[in-house]
Amino acid sequence: MNEYDTELAAGLLVKEGYQLTTEDSKADAVIFNTCSVREHAEDRVFGQLGSFSHQKSVDGRKLILGVMGCMSENYKTGLFKRFPELDFIVGTRNVKDVPRVLSRVIDGKKRQVALDEEGLGIEYSEFTRRGSAYHAWLPIMTGCDKVCTFCIVPKTRGREISKPAAEVTREVKRLAGEGFKAVTLLGQNVNSYGKDFAATAVTFPKLLAELSKISGIEMISFTTSHPSDAVPELFEVIRDNPKITRRFHLPLQSGSDKILKRMKRLHTLSEYRAKVDLLRTMIPEIALTTDIIVGFPGETPEDFDATRHALEQIGFDSAFIYKYSARPGTPAEALVDDVPLEEKKRRNSELLDLQERITESRNLKLIGSVQKGIAGKENVRVSGEIVLRTWTDKKIVVPGAAADLGKIMSARITKLVNETFLGEVYCA
Ligand code: SAH
């Protein structure tokens, strides 16, 4: 979602005549698009803001500094107190306001703010500066109505709002017309899409089925899903529509029912496993990925063991594993953060090692198989090679050229190197 917001802001600025640069030293303005989901993400922005502020106040560099995204929502004008050199803040629902706010600062106005509590904030813009000519990010809903106690997203992105289905369909058709082959539908809780449309009753499965009919679009993915909205009807639509990718990202967070309850995840481990079993029965080739938090308040060695067992038993294709950090204003902030940092690090690395072995053993089973994918990019290290991204979100390096990019191809996997496969183009 943040990547999309950045592409949108960049596109809107270019449309107004600004030029983008990748060199810090050449910039007249630096705008940070920020994430608040973990402390570490914010700390990095604080460090950078400190260093650019120093260039302004101490070195006398003429520079406009702006912050957009979740940190604007999290700290609001408090950011100006901490960084007096900061010129503007723009919230998650105000990306379209970036050029206007910037021009006010250029006109000499100080400490500009665009923070709306309401609104979708994901209006499609034909000016989005997309990073690929074949694959497009497409937000279809924003915000989250779930109540996970560790999570800051409801504070920074607000309540769930879905983009009307007719608009989503129109945009995907437009992308198809522009030559895009693949879209990734985005939402903080994407499979909750449409719950706010009592009248039209377009649910996420129905939307997916509708989008699958659009010719020109060959590959449809989505992220991120909450287990309680992962329903059999959704699995059926995936099974019945070959354009929909075979990767399901379904955050588990913990394998301990006690911790899941404290996190207010709204399910037990066995309920989660029942969904995964059903999904795997219905779509045997599905690749399952997850998110895990270690060191949530009150996580004992036994709770941690339960998570370790869950990873061993479920056998995810890959997992993001995070150390818990308390987020301002979340319900869990009130709990005692009682797992010491060293222990969080230890649990984190133990699970990373375990998952690496599981990922490798699952990947090794794919050697010799034929997989379909989209030719996404050229191999940066070796010329004459391209990287296929498969329907199960694996990468296969095959011989190819720039002219192949954007094509749907099949490859036979010959070898595994770390998490990347090598293969040969397969013609049926
Ligand atoms: N539904 C969201 C999830 C984003 S956050 C979305 O896609 O927008 C991604 C992951 O970060 C979560 O699944 C969780 O595992 C982790 N996370 C969230 N809050 C956290 C916290 N306070 N500390 C550590 N990890 C956290």
Task: From the structure above, extract its key features.
428 residues; alpha/beta; Rossmann fold; pyruvate-formate lyase- activating enzyme; OB fold (Dihydrolipoamide Acetyltransferase, E2P); 3 domains; 5-stranded mixed β-barrel; 4-stranded parallel sheet; 34% helix; globular; binds S-adenosyl-L-homocysteine
Second rung of CATH, namely the architecture of the largest domain? Alpha-Beta Horseshoe
Biggest sheet statistics? 5 strands, mixed, barrel
Q: List all distinct small molecules, including ions and cofactors, that are bound in this structure.
A: S-adenosyl-L-homocysteine
Class derived from helix and strand content: alpha/beta
Q: How many helical stretches?
A: 13
Write down the CATH topology of the largest domain: pyruvate-formate lyase- activating enzyme
The chain-level mean pLDDT equals 95
Radius of gyration from the alpha-carbon trace, in angstroms? 22 Å
Shape assignment: globular
Helix content percent band: 25-40%
Can you list the strand order of the major beta sheet?
13-14-15-17-16
- Quick one: CATH class of the largest domain? Alpha Beta
Supply the CATH superfamily name of the largest domain. tm_1862 like domain
Low-confidence stretches: none
Taken as a percent bin, the fraction of beta residues is 15-25%
How many domains, in number, for the residues?
A: 3
